[in-house]
Predict the 3D structure of the following.
Amino acid sequence: MTPALVQIENLRKEFGNVRALDGVSFSVEAGEWIAIMGPSGSGKTTLINILGGLDTPTSGKALVGGTDVARLDESGLAKFRAQKIGFIFQQFHLVPYLTAVENVMLAQYFHSTTNEPEARQALERVGLADRIEHLPGQLSGGEQQRVAVARALIYHPTLILADEPTGNLDEANEKIVLRLLGELHSEGHTILMVTHAPSIGQLADRRIDLAHGRIAHIVEPVRRG
Ligand code: ADP
Ligand code: MG
């Protein structure tokens, strides 16, 4: 048996006297699409941030591909994020003074070397062929998120971490972003997606519900056929 791609073991995170994560354990197989749900403040973002090495746990472990993320040094962490992780945030987090194509090329730069034709192709794939030279400020929220998706998928990350990726989008752009996530999933990417919307959670293979920093329940996939 191959080990799980993501292994979370008794993960705890305290901010002062706030227990953001209070003993969370689960694992994710390569290729799974997981929805993480739960009310505001239940620890969803903290979990995603620890997995991506943006934050460190108080105790417990988060392993991605066998790597204990918290044990990486600064350069190891930068390499891990560039090679393994694709981030999609609710607030997009594009660099405001770089054009769409330059934002994607920045991710390429951190991965290895820039390749403008590939960056353009990634933007074409998300339906932004005519927005390649636009700055984030000249793009709608939906368009900015599609740039962020292009940036996240540019080097086929092992694990896509999406924190409320459609939280700031209108319905039309929500559909586009969800279709893109569905495509990435069918291409074999592993996705951990935080969402508030049960209708979006249903798209995933498995749903993990958090409450007060603990797993409230896990909804297993409905087997078809
Ligand atoms: P969610 O994403 O589910 O809304 P978070 O993971 O952002 O929840 O937060 C979980 C809890 O941890 C909340 O009570 C929040 O206020 C607290 N928290 C998160 N980040 C910090 C921080 N950097 N400093 C202090 N408290 C934090
Ligand atoms: Mg959050």
Remarks:
- The chain has a mean pLDDT of 92.
- The two ends are 25 Å apart (CA to CA).
- Helices lie at 44-51, 74-84, 100-111, 116-125, 141-153, 171-186, 198-201.
- Residues 15, 18, 20, 38, 40-46 surround adenosine-5'-diphosphate (ligand 1) (CB under 6 Å).
